[in-house]
Write a structure and sequence with these properties.
Structural class: alpha+beta
Number of helices: 20
Radius of gyration: 24 Å
Strand content: 15-25%
Mean pLDDT: 91
Number of strands: 25
Largest sheet: 7 strands, mixed
Shape: globular
Helix content: 25-40%
Distance between the termini: 41 Å
Length: 514
């Protein structure tokens, strides 16, 4: 009875109760409104292709705050489109690492202005777009260790990069380096057995090889090469952070069984590469150390705040989605990916095997498709006046199967399969030049998801009614797209409440890392 009265009193007072501070619950004790401190906080960052995100959880795994910075919108001085620069050849695709540094400055300011007390943060971790690489100039370690808390990071680090534009996962300019690497280790299948994947243009080892061959002076002046993930950890640690095992297995350089750099692969990509990468990789749950004093002095972080190893965005999504064996994650982002949990790696010529970021004895399978959200948005703009509402209305005027019409849309060089261009076929299997707007919209969705199912089954994965499809990424909020996925996979689709699964996974990893 007493509890009921308290609840009624709280309900009556609801209009006048201020939002509780982070880490607190509103309680009503002995007739007095109060706050009860219940936990420390944990932060996950995600340095993705188009934006940086930060997500804060409490000790009960509840999301209490989310913020994001769009590179194109909030940092227009860097001149990116979709977060990247595209070279004249259409294949060289990069991002300025200083832009990512400035985005860290901005998002910390956003968090601070939202009322977040950084002293409440017990640990942080993060993720970065996989395969991207950052080249630190000689002498940068000393700069990182002596950061001045009165200046922003991007001001102090603007002269610290030996390569001013970082190659990212969308780059497809390293075909020669890929063939050289495969030849050096005995062929594409042998490389896949060793590193989890055959050579791919976007993989970091091949990108490093290109820089070694075409920008040797810059390579020689490079003190450390980071992945985007370990780059982020480096900023918060105030020293070079090691690369974690899971993200390292997306480089074509790591022996996925021994969890050590493979000497032949290293030698094929550049001189003294092991020392530039850091001689050892670490498990994804590793506590790297305490946060840099720069963040303690400038933002009020606790000096005891721990920095947990950062990892790639795809491994982080596996953690954020709480994947179990038998589940399939469909991540709908700038690129689309399928993630699966494995106990024994079965590398093949298509797809990727990575070290599992959650279970050090397990692995994960990854199928990555470069033509994802940007391709869907292009069709939306062309056929539905840029409106997702009109897109859905047109989609629902056509039945599943699209009357036998099939479309294949590779607006940029696709990874699986290695192809480029648009192809449309009618119900008689004849190639046609165009579809009506309604057919085109269903064709792009069904074509994309049929490809995902077929390629996964070709690798021996069983996908059917017994599986759960876990959808994440920006497009997972669109229920009409999710219905198409369910139709194609013939399985129920579930969505994560928090669509930023990579940042959420890193917040989880921060909590469980201490």
């Amino acid at each position: 009875m007493k509890a009921q009265k308290q609840q009624k009193a709280l309900t009556a007072l609801k209009w006048s109760i201020p939002d509780p501070p982070f880490c607190c619950d509103v309680i009503f004790q002995d007739g007095v409104l109060a706050y009860k401190v219940h936990s420390k906080l944990f932060v996950g960052f995600d340095i993705s292709t188009q934006q940086i995100k930060a997500l804060v959880i409490d000790n009960r795994l509840r999301t209490v705050l989310e913020k994001s910075i769009s590179y194109d919108k909030d940092l227009p001085e860097f001149g990116t489109r979709g977060g990247v620069h595209v070279g004249n050849d259409g294949q060289t695709i990069t991002s300025p690492p200083l832009m990512w540094v400035k985005a860290i400055d901005l998002i910390l300011k956003q968090l601070q202005e939202s009322g977040l007390k950084f002293s409440d943060i017990a640990a942080l971790s993060g993720s970065g777009q996989q395969h991207g690489s950052v080249y630190w100039k000689q002498g940068t370690r000393n700069v990182l260790r002596q950061l001045n808390s009165t200046d922003q990071l991007h001001i102090q680090l603007r002269d610290c990069f030996s390569v001013q534009t970082s190659p990212v996962w969308m780059d497809s300019s390293t075909a020669k380096q890929c063939r050289d690497l495969e030849t050096a280790v005995g062929g594409p299948l042998e490389l896949s057995k060793l590193t989890g994947s055959r050579a791919y243009e976007r993989f970091t080892g091949n990108q490093i090889a290109k820089i070694y061959q075409t920008q040797q002076e810059a390579y020689n002046k490079t003190e450390r090469i980071s992945l985007v993930s370990s780059f982020g950890a480096t900023l918060f640690l105030g020293d070079y952070a090691p690369i974690d095992e899971s993200d390292a297995s997306g480089m074509n350089l790591l022996d996925i069984r021994t969890r050590q750099w493979h000497p032949q692969a290293l030698n094929a990509c550049g001189e003294k590469l092991s020392s530039k990468l850091g001689d050892k990789v670490v498990p994804s749950s590793t506590v790297l150390g305490d946060i840099s004093g720069y963040f303690v002095d400038r933002y009020g972080f606790s000096p005891d705040c721990k920095v947990i190893a950062w990892t790639g965005d795809n491994p982080a999504s596996l953690a954020g989605m709480r994947l179990e064996e038998g589940d399939v994650i469909v991540s709908l982002g700038t690129s689309d990916t399928l993630l699966l949990w494995l106990t024994e790696p079965q590398p093949a010529l298509e797809g990727h095997i990575l070290v599992n970021p959650v279970d050090t004895n397990a692995y994960m399978a990854l199928l990555c498709f470069k033509n994802g959200s940007l391709t869907r948005e292009k069709i939306r703009d062309e056929c539905a006046n840029g409106s997702w509402e009109d897109f859905s209305q047109l989609l629902n005027t056509t039945p599943p199967g699209n009357h036998g019409n099939i479309g294949i849309y590779f607006d940029v060089q696709e990874i699986i399969p290695f192809a480029h261009g648009q192809y449309r076929f009618n119900d008689k299997g004849q190639e046609v030049s165009s579809f009506g707007a309604d057919v085109e919209i269903r064709a792009v969705l069904e074509g994309q998801f049929l490809a995902k199912r077929i390629h996964a089954q070709n690798l021996g994965y069983h996908i059917g009614p017994g599986n759960r499809i876990l959808a994440t990424g920006g497009a997972s909020i669109n229920t009409d797209i999710l219905q198409v996925i369910s139709n194609v996979f013939n399985a129920p689709v579930y969505i994560q409440k928090d669509v930023n699964s990579a940042a959420l996974g890193c917040a989880y990893r921060a909590k469980h890392g201490i």
